[in-house]
């Protein structure tokens, strides 16, 4: 059985610790929250691990992750291995890896998919870095990934950064799929030709082309709230959707579906659209078309 | 000087009568509104015209226009000419023309652009029908179209229906252009890098690639309301944008810009989006992402 | 065990007959192709069925289906039931149902999903029509649908037309999902950050948010042809995608993802784009930008 | 009359020198091309200018411009002024300005629109930087901008960077407008309802809502080549369209039209689309739909 230091015991990290322990691995967790942590500091956590150590970072992307990597650079030793399992931008990985490589500490980036269901179902994993480092961490990956053939829930995508790159694209696809279901749902609701919309969607779970985990989740949501009117059509976006679109720009790849899905989220968060005020103003100017006055 | 029967004296028809009379033509208008009409009924209007008569219809597209054509079929005589200057769908024209042709009455369809500015600036005209009918009505077209070379403000597009077809596509392009300006306006507003947004837009009126009448109108709107916050981003659509998209479908022509402009209008009118409620519900299901509850 | 007349023994109908017979039902098929038919004519097929008869139509949508319905109207008797399992437009269903109702013959429309895999996996079914007619045909539906709970692979969507409506929306969603995967695949291919693209996609099959039947099929395609370069990026569209977009127009529902997916198919079939020739011409006009001459 | 150093005498810079000289200004140009240059080196150019000097850079954006700024930092003196009139990304301007400010040299960024027509029509100008620097260069701006009121062809957009920002958004809008015309053109061509497409487009030049300089250029292009079939639908993109989309991402502003226009250009340059190969492969997998084999 392997031993792992795990930094960040939020929604994801906490569940991953559960799954790893259930598989028999030893996990020394660290979190600023004293209610969940197994150690009092990063230093304390590191001291509790036998070498060569493996430390998994599961903290927010960006500054928190970069800072954690820097601190680990000072605490770990030659031959140790750091895995960033958060949602970092893939360009951060090369920087993190170089910083640690200067101290002969290994680095892997690991995209982790599956959300709150991962604890029981396992997590889809996409890993970037050296094959020898991947090999070292394989017992951990095998415990986190779903049951079944390894290559259906885990991939070694390539060099450092490629794991997060694969996860970014995965999320871009996810944006598009979710929006496709969402448009279909709205069409069914609006047209009122189908009388029992939740039943139709539930009936798509077997045999159809659209059967998928997202469909299963939509069925679940409709079971709880058949018209989804307990919540608002207000949708956040995390970094991956934006980064996917940046990659489309950088590589001159048309991405009309992924961009449309991202823009729909942007629009969902606007109380009023400056763009549409401009269109209303133009119509009013040329055609004397009536406009809604603010405050009407 | 020519003589014209003009049915429909609303915002457009009223102004057209003014322009035609200013050019010296005789116009006998008919409208249900007694304050503006020149005749008490269609029959009365027709009786006041010398043959061969030319009658211009300027009433709402669809049923009102079709019904007016049918009534005229009973009132007019062989050799008369009917012109539909409204925003009819081009497929209506063939039906109207055939109905009148059975009585040897001519038919032209005429797309009219220019809005409330047409009275003074002239109207852009696109005409479909037989060349001999176009010739008969040319004094009317010449009075309605803008000053300058005839072929820069008037076209004979082809057979019956082609005038409205050209106008439909014109409006589809207009949707796209307006949305392009609108997105640019919102970006300038949102980024706050440009300090004086109205000045920048005003400064685009000469020398730039985007100089256009729509830009002039946007400048005018910003003169009156520099942040366009006296109105709401709520935008109606008339038939032409939808029909243009139907034509894209029917002809397998990609129309991503025109469709995006149309969908932006649809979205502008939604209080809350069922689609985005579905996306929010899915995110909540898989990730435990927080959602805005209705009523929050 | 039930008895069924089945008209149309092409790719779909042939497999459905296999599945129905494997379940113990008696199927009398009719097809113009003598190699596969069980009867020499529609009349012959009908004569081989005991009343009250159930006849399933599985021929191309549009004229062929409408004509088959009309012929069945002359051959069947009061109390018989016709099921259109093809990809008819939902507006055809009301017409078909009324025609048969005049002769007291029942009518159901049934959207069928699952493609060539349906023979073994079962077909996802969405049915529109009267509950009593649905009840009569339930043994057939139960044999065609996948194993598992009935309501996960079958739905009674509502009145006549709602089955095909549900199938149309299903296919619109499918278009969007496929395009989402397609854009992700192209991004992975273009960026070359991920070294082993098929392995990453294969590794998404378990635990991830995008796991789905379409993903499984993409994995299968990549197993056979890892860069998908044995085929061309030329994609047909059938009616459902277009009709879904028409519904979006008719109901003023924004459908940016589904429309983008449809337009991508349109564009994939163009050797050269008139639109992009116009953009090239404009750039050349204002900027003297070089253009590719035809034939270069 | 003012004196100006002008670096870069390509298509744009050469014409600007002509226009400035025609207005009576003294221009000392520098270009690596000995056929057009007025000086043998940057040093030589600077030596020919009286202080306080104004130097206009008109070289490609990115490295060439940044390097020229650095060299000018070594050659110019306190109180001199550098204007970057190229298509630099607005984020470069702050860096350039700071570098020069360390030597008390002023800096303005100036977006320049109008293409090859600017020599005769004047250029639309958008300037960022200190008001005092703008004032110094006003005689130059007045000579370059079009006839007419200054504020219709020139704007002081705000601080350093805002001129290029305004130009970037201008170009984003331009992308959308061009694509709108392009889609309209393709629809007219494809549907064949309008018999005389060039005549219809020519007839839009007066009175219509879409009248614009781009329309005039489209008319000009159609005069030369009525079906635009002397060129290919292959369209380059410069930085501004991509940067506009990046700004949309960074500011969470929906930009469906501008992104669609950019993606259409990306797609126009693809011989074959990996994305559409994936869609074709998927259709083949589930439906046995025929595919075009590469090389067919």
TrEMBL record, chains A, B, C, D:
GO terms for biological process: D-gluconate metabolic process; pentose-phosphate shunt. Keywords: Gluconate utilization, Oxidoreductase. GO terms for molecular function: NADP binding; phosphogluconate dehydrogenase (decarboxylating) activity. This is 6-phosphogluconate dehydrogenase. Residues 163-296 form the 6-phosphogluconate dehydrogenase C-terminal domain. The keyword Oxidoreductase applies. Pfam families: 6PGD, NAD_binding_2. Belongs to the 6-phosphogluconate dehydrogenase family. The lineage of its organism: Bacteria, Bacillati, Actinomycetota, Actinomycetes, Pseudonocardiales. The keyword Transcription regulation does not apply.
